Amino acid sequence: MKIIDAHIHFKPSPGFDRLAQEAGHINSAAHLQETFDKLDIRHAVIMGNTGLDETPLCPPHTSYCIGLDSSHFSQSVLENDMSLLESHLRCPECVGIKLYPGYNRHYITEPFYHPLYDLAAQYRKPVAIHTGATANAGAHLKYCHPLLVDEVAADFPNTTFVLCHYGNPWVTDAAAVLDKNKNVCADLSGILDGGRHDIDAYEKANSGYMEHLRTWIAYPCAFDRLMYGTDWPLVHMADYIDFVSRLIPHQHWEDVFYHNADRIYGLHLETR
Ligand SMILES: [Zn+2]
């Protein structure tokens, strides 16, 4: 099955090297390519961690969302560097914007974000938003609750928003936001992390949780707005394909694993 991974991170750094190693991978472009070939991953979207004044490193068969993580974000960056943001959105390799609330201690409903949402709509590129649990304890969860996306989705109906991680563990709230707002999509990355997993054993040990995920992923009947993603290097790519396959009914695999990301991020892989 051909796959688009709609949510990875790629950056040469000792921290990423360690995470990749823990997940049974190597943090290098060559290894990524080898893994893509092995698993029929045709393309991946890199969630940027560079700030606005750098272009994230994009190995072959990747695009990027320009990302403002906590080491690069401030209110004044957004207020003063909107032209820099726009220069990214003009590039075909840049397929969206990534926001990191929780790590960044601001609500995504703050007015200083509004011009960003308008700009994203103008360039028809989605705003991907971290929602749900965070990777470090220094983050503040109140800023990354998926319900916050409801407000911006309602107020900016021409902007497409992506709930990264399906808001996990607030999956019922994510489901309500998806159900109500047709301009909201979601990726299924990062629900499982921390190295290798035997998915059979995981499912046996966590059957209630798996059923809960299946129920609330299916609830909004939005399989045309759901995207496969891993959050690599936090997980092993083959393990994660197995994991997500168990959450999505078979008849929706082609859309969720490939076509939806192709459309939502405007990749047009089929017509390249
Ligand atoms: Zn991520």
Outline:
The protein has 272 residues and is an alpha/beta fold.
How would you summarize the topology of this molecule?
Layout: E1 3-8, H1 14-22, H2 29-39, E2 41-47, E3 62-68, H3 75-80, H4 82-90, E4 94-99, H5 114-122, E5 127-130, H6 147-155, E6 161-164, H7 171-180, E7 184-187, H8 199-205, H9 207-218, E8 226-227, H10 237-245, H11 253-264
Parallel strand pairs: 1-2, 2-3, 3-4, 4-5, 5-6, 6-7, 7-8
The structure holds zinc ion.
Describe this structure in words.
The chain has 272 residues and is α/β, with parallel strands linked by helices. The chain has a single domain, classed as Metal-dependent hydrolases (TIM Barrel), CATH 3.20.20.140. The chain is globular. Strand 4, helix 5 and strand 5 form a beta-alpha-beta unit. It starts with a strand and ends in an 8-residue tail after the last helix. Helices cover 38% and strands 15% of the residues. It has 11 helices and 8 strands. The longest helix is centred in the last third of the chain and has 12 residues. It has an 8-stranded parallel β-sheet. Helix 4 packs parallel to helix 5 and helix 7 runs parallel beside helix 9. The mean pLDDT is 95. The protein binds zinc ion. The site of zinc ion (ZN) has 5 residues, from loops.
